[in-house]
Amino acid sequence: MLEILCVLALNPEGMTLEACHAILYGDEHVATATLKAELSHLRTLLDGRISARTYRLVGTVWVDFIALWAAIRQHQVAEARHLYRGELLPHSQSLEIKEWRACINAVMAQQ
Question: Could you name the domain of life of the organism this protein comes from (predicted)?
Fold first, then answer.
């Protein structure tokens, strides 16, 4: 479920179920119905803060790795070190999350 939340946070404009599925699972054989059920469960857990059809997080959301990336981009080294808590979802196979993880790790290794 954290992977789903990360993908939604990275795509604040929203996305279709199919786009979300492609980002999360790529070529893996995971039914879209499985993702739809997970999104529905998350929507319940988050008191409706995930919109339907065009899936996106509703309202203001603070996400640590996005705040970390903003600190990196603004050359706020102390803030970036403070926010960095280790690899972003180290077991995730989502290509988008893997790319973010690699970028963050590369920058933080230089700090």
Answer: Bacteria
- As a whole number of Å, the CA-based R_g of the chain is 15
Q: Write out the residue range of the structural domain in which residue 27 sits.
A: 2-45
pLDDT in tens, the chain (111 residues): 999 999 999 999 999 999 999 999 998 999 999 999 999 999 999 999 999 889 999 999 999 999 999 999 999 999 999 999 999 999 999 999 999 999 999 999 997
Contacts of 9 (CB under 8 A, 6+ apart): 57, 61, 63, 66
CB of 8 closer than 8 Å to CB of 24 = no
Whole-prediction pTM: 0.88
- Which of 31, 46, 34 has its CA nearest to residue 8? 46
Asked if residue 68 and residue 38 are part of one domain, the reply reads no
Q: What whole-number distance in Å separates Cα of residue 68 and Cα of residue 79?
A: 8
